[in-house]
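Justification of resources, computational component.

The compute hours requested in this renewal are based largely on the per-chain cost of generating structure records like the one below. Each record pairs the submitted sequence with a full structure-token output. That output is archived, and it is also reused by downstream analysis tasks.
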Amino acid sequence: MKLLSILRHAKSSWSDSSLLDHDRPLNKRGLRDAPRMGDLIREKGLVPDAILSSTALRARDTALAVAETAGFPDEVCFVRRLYGAGPVDYVEALSALSDDFEHAMVVGHNPGLEELVARMVGEPHSMPTAALAVVELPVESWRELDSLPQGSLRALWRPRELGE
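The structure output for this chain reads:
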């Protein structure tokens, strides 16, 4: 059994129209919500063994804030192909992980993450910014994800539902 945490990047800023989409930073709410999700991960005992993140600035900053506040002891792995990725891209990136990792996290973007959650658990779930879905997967090896096994949704948290 493997555990997969799927985290959408926190809320980003649209204030500077000269920036490329890839270079948009987190806004005030995003800077607040990313560490809150890291705290939640730590409190729930869900610190992953590996974190894969999109290279987009908003995803990188989310992943780093979550990793720091959750107490993730290693380096976040930034994967260019996760920017604008679909479910197949996430599965391919995860399939390359060592089976020594029991719990992995991906940090990325919609619509790809909502599609990934739907394919992993067999039903759609809304993934607003900084939402975290935790999926139990009936596999022993990350390479088995190629068959897109049906997992079960262990938890789904959205920042607005956490209260202040």
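Helices lie at 28-43, 57-70, 87-95, 112-121. The beta strands are 2-8, 50-53, 77-78, 103-108, 132-137, 152-157.
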